[in-house]
Amino acid sequence: MMNNPQKVLLMLMVFALANPSFLMPGMLALAAKKYYPPGYNPPASESDSNTQKPPQTIIVPRTQVIIKTEPAPPPQVIIKKVAVPAKPKDPLTVMLEERRFYEALRLVDQRIQKSPNDIGLKLTRAQILRDKENYDQSEAEYDTILSKTKDKSLQVRAYAGLGLTHMSQALQAKRLGDDNEFQAKQVAAETAFKHALAINPNNTQAWTGLAQLALSKERYTEADTAIKRALKHAPNDIRALMTQSHLLLEQKQPEEALPVIFKAKQLDSREPQVNLLLGRSYLDMERFDDAIIQLQQVLDKNPQHSDALKLLSKAYEGKLRPDDAE
Prior knowledge:
mainly alpha, elongated
């Protein structure tokens, strides 16, 4: 006995035979499919291979792409060093640095003839006369300048220079044993320095001069105050540095004096007074060989330097070489 689906199939087949042109494509498609009774699950191998599986959605994680952009390098700047020719020194300055005082005096006189009203040149002339130990002529030059100029800055320079000239005159009088002249020139020097400071309280040259005067009188506290004022306004002033080192040596402090002297030597290695101070420092420290070297350099420039001769004799005595001290 046939069930309903079988009946339907049989009827369709009969109809298809009767009308082949109408149902043939549909019947062929139906016949191509396998028919399974209700409740029957075909195995996986018998499943319809033509059944299309639903498309799978593949989720691809988004990749973050970071593009680094390097900043453009700065344009290359090429700096070419161009040698700038050094400005030649004034011949007068060179002569003074090399202590060629006779040539310097000749040159400055020529310049004064061309510029007779140039007070600066006349101040330089007065300084050169002092360096040449023509103290009276130097004093007269400074007095003439002070009588003719009303320029305060030039007056300060003239008073300070005049004070130094008076100090040199005092030392000369002391060597000659003229005590009255020594005392008078010291007073004149102090007066000139105070005139300079009354116009310009920061004048290094005047403060240095007052320190030297106090030092010569063994007024060490006063000298220390004055030289500190001088170095405050001009820390690289060689005269002030030498005065400070001299003060330290007088106070028996050669180790403290050495760095001050070396600084002065860096500023002017040709200054014989620096070698003298070094020689004295080494002698006080009993470094006799070093003392002899420095003192001999002073005598190479001035064989008659009395202070250097005395110190050199003591240095040789310290080395127990009396033959060399003769």
